[in-house]
Each structure stands twice: as C-alpha cells, then as structure tokens.
Give the backbone structure.
Amino acid sequence: MNRNATLRAPAKINLALDILRKDPSGYHEIRTVLQEVPSLADIITLEEGANYGDFDIEFPNAPEHEEDNTVKTALALLKKDFPDTPSVYIAVHKNIPMQSGLGGGSSDAAAVLKQLGEWWKIPHEELMKIAEKIGMDCPFFLYGGTALDTHFGEKITPLPPLPQSVNIEVIDTGITVSTRDAYTLVDISRCNKNTSRTDTLIAALHAGDTNAIIQNARNDFEEFIFAAHPELLAKKLAAEKEKPGRIMLCGSGGALVSLTKALNKSSQDNTSRSRLVRLHLR
C-alpha cells in the first residue's frame, strides 16, 4: 500500500544574526539564534506512487518561484544518494511569504526530508548532509525549536526554548528580498560589531529573562537592507509607533517581526499564545 502524509513546514525568525566574515569560497560565515514559529507554516502533502517517475512537485496556490527549487533540490539529492526508493508526489501549499526571511523554502525541503527519511529508514546524519547542500537554514529545520547556528548554518547547538512570556508577531510587509541579493549588499567591515549582545541574548534564554531577550534581539542585515529598501524602513518605523517591544527584520527580509512581553499571567497560561502569528498585509 502506498503511504501518504500531510506535513506542516513552520517558519522561523532570527532572534539574533551576526555576519562574521566572508569565506574565500564566497560564502558568509554567520552566528545566528533561530526560533521556529510553528503557527505559521506551509502545508505539504506527500504520496508514494508508481506513476510519478522519480518525483513530481506541485505548488497549487503559488507561482513557480526560485524558492520552490529547495524542494526539488532536496528530492534530486535524495534520489541520487538513494536511487532505489519509491517515486513520490508532493504538493506544497504556501502560507509563508516567499523571500521574506522566514525560511519557507528551507523548511519545506526539511519537512520533506524528515518524512521521507522516516519512511525509507534514512539515517539522520545522511539527511543532514543533504540539508547542508540546500541552504543555511535547512539543517536547523531538521531540529526545530530554538538553536544557535554557526559557520554556514550547518553547525547547530540546541538552546533552551523561548519563554512563553515572549509574544511573536510576524508582519508581512509585501516587500521581497532574496537571500542572494541581501548578501550582495553587505559591507563585511561594518558587521560583527555587536556579538556581545548575541552572547547576552543566549544567556537570557538560559535564564528565561524575557526583557533581556527582547532588548538584545538584533540583526546585522538591517543596516544594509533598510538602506537599499527605504520603503521597508518606513514600515518598520510605522510599526514602532503602533507596537511596544522590539520591531526587527526577519532574517534577510523583507518581513518584520515584533517581539513583546506578555501583558499578564493569564496570557502566559495559554500555551499557544507566544506562537500566535498574525500577518498584516500593508
């Protein structure tokens, strides 16, 4: 009997992001604290079957996009390394805005790798090798939760979970920024100046210190992305007038994230509260 599954591929935000240096290979070494956001997720349907060739992928509610290639790349690499596995059909229903810094493409690829790895008894370390070839965020999504990612994103250290007293709100600005374009804007001589704040944020996660987490959240991309996209900076400034707490760029943009402290204890008793995400199209 052919197997099938419906998966959630969650978004992520960067609680801290340091761009450390540019490697001779052309890639940038980073140090980032990633946080999974389960309540904002793409929905993926997988089905094994004999009539699909090696694999077939559809995106029913989104146009073909560069970000979609992550799923195709994952399947191609998986089939190359494990050619005797069954054919598979995949449908990806996009809810995570593309080119938003929320990691949707990487999360889709990781969700597919995890499910097929479970079905086909592929060791986690083999899935990690494939994920590392797809993108900086993809290895993180094989773990999820809260984690420190270093080097090119493939070195992962799990961290204590983000306290439920931190509210997360993702703001979809409608502005797109590709990761490739974002890195071309970076002046590495102006990066790597605030790593102590990342250290403080990590210590705050261990201590469960909500205020210190919010105060030290930061992103090296902001200076360069906001200079290149003043309309995105204008939306950030407008959001800061409306909302308390910290408003910052998601990854390489162009979504924003608002981090605020829960107002009262009763809201802390709602286990889904800190993962509730509201998208505002502006």
User: Anything to note?
Assistant: The first strand starts at residue 4 and ends at 22. The chain has two domains: 4-157, 161-275. The CA atoms of residues 158 and 216 lie 19 Å apart. Confidence is low (pLDDT under 50) at residues 266-277.
